[in-house]
Each structure stands twice: as structure tokens, then as C-alpha cells.
Amino acid sequence: MEEEQRDANNSWDLIHFSLLDVASIESRSGEMTSSHFAEEAPVRRVALFGGTHGNELSGVFLVKHWQQEGEPEIRRPGLQTKPFMANPRAVEKCCRYIDCDLNRVFEKENLGKPLAENTPYEVQRAQEINSIFGPKGSRDAYDLIFDLHNTTANMGSTLILESSRDDFTIQMCSYIKGALAPEVCPVFLIEHPHLKYATTRSVAKHPVGVEVGPQPHGVLRADILEKMRKIVRHGLDFIRMFNAGQAFPPCTIEAYKIVEKVDYPRGKNNEITALIHPDLQDQDWRPLHPGDPIFLTMEGEAILYEGETTVYPAFVNEAAYYEKQQAFVKTVKEALSARGIRVSQN
Ligand SMILES: CC(=O)N[C@@H](CC(=O)O)C(=O)O
Ligand SMILES: [Zn+2]
């Protein structure tokens, strides 16, 4: 099955090769140099966030490990790498959050709000994080944040991007995907006019989410932790090579872009009246066709997907999303192209 999916990915890349040509021709007239590489500032300050959600234990465990002095695994020449526990109070209690979801409160408005007695703990913490790693949107902000998450869904190693126009992170994802092959590493794009949320990592110039599953919250699995660890190591390698002057030619990757959140069927008192259908369970990133079953009622009746186009579900049966009234998200495949990049010399 994985073999098939890879072949499909390859032919898909070929189809979109013409797109890539167009991108590099267009960019000749822009700010590109004569050899078509956009020059970008070096990426010197990188943070590794764990425990943004206190019960997602791979990131919590890795950050604790890396915080031991002089950890060579995350050290790279010319790079300052800071492991950081984003929500220590939630980590202590092994829960997602104390008052509200930290990974939803990084709107500029929250970050500038005067603190009051009833300010939620996570909003206070967001302001601290913003002052250490931001300010969000400013020149002083950290260059890049890897934010480490786990999901109960069968999403494998997933990278989460917030912008389709960030050449550096698209190039990095392309590198990580190549380094992990033949294992697949889907890229999930949360860019959307109203479904995008204000993440912890968004204080950095280049925000990168790392989402690995399936793993129950509050549980550590060695296989899942190892997948997360590999992504971080390859990501840091990419940054080191970029800073050292390596040029990366234009690239196009396949991404899954969020298009809609789907809630469970609910009754009069808002209670859930159907479960994720067994045919959909664990099928993240697999095509969901019109007419396929998505839910199963207690009477054994299947509820079908009534859309008109094929979509690719993700976060199927994510435990943390029951309270967000979300059974899964629908995504569509999209080509993400980046210009060639190399580090600016001055
Ligand atoms: C299961 C989970 O926590 N997922 C993350 C996804 C992300 O970091 O964008 C969240 O909802 O914040
Ligand atoms: Zn999380």
C-alpha cells in the first residue's frame, strides 16, 4: 500500500512539473538573482517546543531530554537551538491545558492584552512565550520553531505548515520528505480564511508543526517518539546546510490543504449519536469518495459522505477534538511550490 502511494506521489510530481517551470520563469523578473535563487537570511535561532499540549508525551519527553546540558543531537554549527517546554503547568498535570488551549490563543489581540486576575493561564503563558521568542511578526522574532505534537489519529509523521508562500519551510519539508523516504511524510496546510488558528509556533518567522500518531494522549510509544526525533534531526540538518551556503533548486511538494471540519452527528442535548465508521477509522490521508461511510449509529446504520468530490480526511477520531466538535477534517491535495533558495551573504 505504501509502495502504491509513493508511486502515485511520484507521477503526481511529474504532472505538476510544468507548474514549477512557470514559477521559475515568472520569478526571473522579481527579486531573484540572475541564477533564479531567492536569497534569504540565515536561520540562526531555532526553538524546539514540546508540551504545547501537556499530555502529548513524545515532545514533552524529547524536550526534557534535550534540556540536559550540551545535548549533541540538536547541536549544529552556526545554529542556536533552544528546547523549550511550552505549557509546563499542563505537563505537570499531564493534561492538554489548564484554562484554554494554548495552541489557539496567539492572536495579536491576546498577546497585547493587559493581564488581569481572571486572565486564563494560557493567555499569560502566550505573552511570556511571545516576549521570549517573538514578538510575533517582528524582526526580533525567532527564525524557526518546531512545535512537537501527538495525535490519537493514524496520521503517521505529518508536517504542518501555515503558509503556502514560505519558500524556506516548503524547501525544508521537501528535504525532510526526501530524507524519510520510502516512509511517507504528509504535509498538512492549515492556511484558510476562517479555519486557520493562532498557534504557539506562529510567533516565529517560520512556524513548523510536527504531528505524529497514532499515540494515545498521556502515553509514550518508542516507535512514535523515534519518528518525531528523525523529523527534527533532518530539519536541523537542512538548516545547517542552508546556512552553510548550499543552494536548493525550485521544488514542488504535495500538500493536503484544510477545507472543512466535520462534526459528529448530534442529538437534542448535543450528545454524539454516531461513531466514526470502522471503514474510516485509521484511514487518515486515504481518499474518501462520495458515498463512502463515515459514521455508524448505535442501531448499526451507516452514515455516508455526501460530498461531490473526493477528499482526504485527517485527524480522524482525534481524542482532543471531541470538545472542539470535530470528528475529522477534510483536506484536498494541492501542489506547493517554492522558489530556489540560498542564504544571503550579508
Ligand atoms: C491533536 C493536536 O493537538 N493537534 C494540533 C495541531 C496543530 O498543532 O496545528 C492542535 O490542534 O493544536
Ligand atoms: Zn497537540
TrEMBL record:
SUPFAM superfamilies in the cross-refs: Zn-dependent exopeptidases
Phylogenetic classification of the source organism: Eukaryota, Metazoa, Chordata, Craniata, Vertebrata
Keyword Transmembrane helix: no
Residue ranges of every copy of the Succinylglutamate desuccinylase/Aspartoacylase catalytic domain listed in the record: 43-239
CDD domains membership: M14_ASPA
Keyword Endoplasmic reticulum: no
Name this polypeptide is given: Aspartoacylase
Leader peptide range in chain numbering: none
Cofactor list: Zn(2+)
Pfam families listed in its UniProt record: AstE_AspA_cat, AstE_AspA_hybrid
Assigned keywords, A-Z: Cytoplasm, Hydrolase, Metal-binding, Nucleus, Zinc
Highest taxon listed in the record's lineage: Eukaryota
Family: Belongs to the AspA/AstE family. Aspartoacylase subfamily.
Ranges where the AstE/AspA barrel-sandwich hybrid domain occurs: 252-331
Enzyme Commission code: 3.5.1.15
Source organism of this protein record: Pogona vitticeps (central bearded dragon)
Localization: Cytoplasm; Nucleus
NCBIfam families xrefs: PRK02259.1 (NF002601)
InterPro entries in UniProt: AspA/AstE_fam, Aspartoacylase, AstE_AspA_cat, Aste_AspA_hybrid_dom
